[in-house]
Amino acid sequence: MKGFNYYQDAKNEWRWNLKDGNHEIVADSGEGYRDKTDCQKGAELFKALGPEAPERKVVEPDTSGQGPEWEYYSDRKAEWRWRFQARNNKILADSAEGYESEQNVKRSITNVKDLLRELRGSGSNGGNGGSGGYVPPTTKGSEGPGRFA
User: Fold this and answer.
1) Among residues 15, 16, 82, which one has the least CA distance to residue 54?
2) 5 neighbors 19 (Cβ within 8 angstroms)
3) Cα distances (Å, whole numbers) of residue 65 to 70, 128, 130
C-alpha cells in the first residue's frame, strides 16, 4: 500500500518507511523512536514540511543548514543519496537507497515531494491506487530499458 509503514526494529525502536504506488520503499526515518506516536509525528512532520522545502547539494552531510531542507550528496561508494532535515536540523528522513547520478537523486527528491503532496492532499496515511506522477529513478546497479544516464 502506498504511504507510511510503521514497524519496530531489532532494538524495539519504532521506525517508518514510505512506499510509493509500486510498493517500493522510497524513504525511511532518519532515526528510531521510543514510542509509536512519536514515530508517527515524525512522518507527519516530513509530510508537512517536505514538499516545499528547498534542496541543497553538499559535499558531506552536515547539520549546518537552515532547515527544513533536502541535502543531497555523493557518499564514499560514489552513490548519490539524500536526507531531509527539519527546522531544528534534526534528520527526519533519508533515501532508502543510493543512486547512480546526481540527476537521479534529484529526480528521487522530486518524486518523494510529489508523493508527500499526494498523501497530504488525500488527508490520510496513504491509500490505494496508481503511482500518480512517480517516475522511478535508477538506483545503483539497475539495468534494463528504464535506466537513466
Assistant:
1) 82
2) yes
3) 9, 36, 35
Cα torsion at 43, 45, 48, 53 (round to 10°)?
A: -110
Find the Cα–Cα–Cα–Cα dihedral 60, 63, 69, 74, rounded to 10°: 10
- Cβ atoms 32, 18 nearer than 8 A: no
What grid cell was written down for 140?
A: 545503483
Could you list the pLDDT tens digit for every one of the 149 residues in the chain?
899 999 999 999 999 999 999 999 999 998 999 999 999 999 999 999 999 999 999 987 766 667 799 999 999 999 999 999 988 888 999 998 999 999 999 999 999 999 999 998 876 554 433 333 333 444 444 433 332 22
Residue 79 and residue 98 in contact, taking contact as beta carbons nearer than 8 Å: yes
Cβ proximity of 46 and 91 under 8 Å: no
CB 50 within 8 A of CB 113: yes
Residue 85: all three cell numbers together: 532535515
Return d(Cα 112, Cα 77) in angstroms, integer.
Answer: 23
